[in-house]
Specification:
Number of domains: 2
Distance between the termini: 58 Å
Structural class: alpha/beta
Strand order of the largest sheet: 3-2-1-4-5-10-11
CATH architecture of the largest domain: 3-Layer(aba) Sandwich
Shape: elongated
CATH class of the largest domain: Alpha Beta
Order of helices and strands: EHEHEHEHEHEHEHEHEHEEHH
Oligomer: single chain
Number of strands: 11
Strand content: 15-25%
CATH topology of the largest domain: Rossmann fold
Length: about 350
């Protein structure tokens, strides 16, 4: 049977999505002679049949392009729609796939997209998922495309803050993304020479943080860099960076400023690592389709691209633990983790 696969991107944008679309589609078209249909605006596009046929020519220029040419949305078809309670969205999507002649679906997204893909798989849809998130928190894969780019951007920002901090003898607090997982803060903080790194997984004590910073000043170190993940607990009224900066200034009396990096981490061109990872993962996804293996997510295991069944991955988060080698080495070097 001729394969006509649909491909969509859901959730937040991320560097490397377009490289993944390209990897899937070029392999499908050139290696396996498949027809590829791009679905616009995530699962919303399957509800409205908003699609376009992708050709080898239309994939030109995608490798280094940020964002997603297919567009995205946070449509969750299995979530009850209070405005349209009578519409069975999953059933409508399955019917629309049949109408469009799609016999398999590639979903590029994070943990929420993975859960949706797993539910469609249980309903008999041929689905493959690809791990897209800068947070790097998808269980079962050593890396998600987009993470390396986000860390590189955050590290560059920290590097630039060193000069301002040293010039003004300040404590500089930089807030990076990471609601539940602190991978960006950990990797950029260590790569950027952070003195304090705070992540959601590890509890912090403001007294320990203040002592670390004051001890540095006593040793003649006139400034400190504090890297904070956005998901650390706060008082509920202030964002993470502002909250920590306020506490540090109150406890130490040192001039403290915060910088929120925000969506800059998610935008722009992907690094060469993310381009190659996305390309490899996209090509492997197409191989799984050609072999008739569905209900799986493509993952990086060491240096090897492989896959895992949805039931092993869906609903789990990959979080930083105290025995992580970067945490251990950071503590050995005097970095405060709270």
């Amino acid at each position: 049977m001729a394969i006509r696969l649909g491909i969509l991107t859901a959730g937040g944008d991320c560097p490397g999505i377009n490289a993944t679309i390209r990897g899937v589609a070029k392999t499908a078209i050139n290696q396996f002679g498949m027809e590829v249909v791009g679905i616009r605006s995530g699962f919303q596009g399957l509800l409205t049949k908003d699609v376009e046929v992708l050709t080898d020519k239309s994939l030109t220029g995608l490798l280094n392009l940020g964002g997603t040419v297919l567009g995205t949305s946070r449509e969750k078809p299995f979530k009850k729609d209070l405005e349209n309670p009578d519409i069975d969205k999953p059933a409508l999507i399955i019917q629309n796939m049949k109408d469009l002649g799609l016999n398999c679906l590639v979903c590029i997204g994070g943990n929420g997209t993975l859960k949706t893909a797993a539910k469609f798989s249980l309903m008999g849809v041929n689905v493959i998922s690809l791990p897209k998130t800068i947070d790097n928190d998808i269980w079962g894969t050593d890396a998600c495309f987009g993470f390396d780019t986000a860390v590189s951007i955050a590290t560059e920002a920290i590097d630039r803050l060193h000069s301002t901090a040293s010039s003004h003898n300040r404590v500089m607090v930089i807030e990076v993304m990471g609601h539940k997982a602190g991978w960006i803060a950990l990797h950029s903080g260590m790569a950027g020479g952070g003195d304090v790194i705070l992540i959601p997984e590890l509890p912090f004590n403001v007294e320990n943080i203040s002592k670390t910073i004051l001890d540095r000043t006593k040793r003649g170190k006139s400034y400190s860099i504090v890297v904070v993940a956005e998901g650390i607990p706060t008082d509920g009224t202030l964002k993470a960076g502002e909250y920590i900066a306020k506490l540090i200034q109150e406890k130490t009396g040192l001039e403290t400023r915060e910088t929120v990096l925000g969506y800059i981490q998610r935008g722009g061109s992907p690094t060469s690592f993310d381009r190659n990872l996305a390309t490899r993962m996209g090509g492997y996804a197409t191989e799984l389709i050609a072999d008739g293996q569905f209900g799986r997510i493509v993952v990086l295991d060491g240096s090897k691209i492989t896959s895992l069944p949805f039931e092993e991955v869906s609903g789990k988060l990959k979080l930083v633990t105290e025995d992580n080698d970067l945490v251990i080495e950071g503590k050995r070097m005097g970095v405060c983790f709270g």
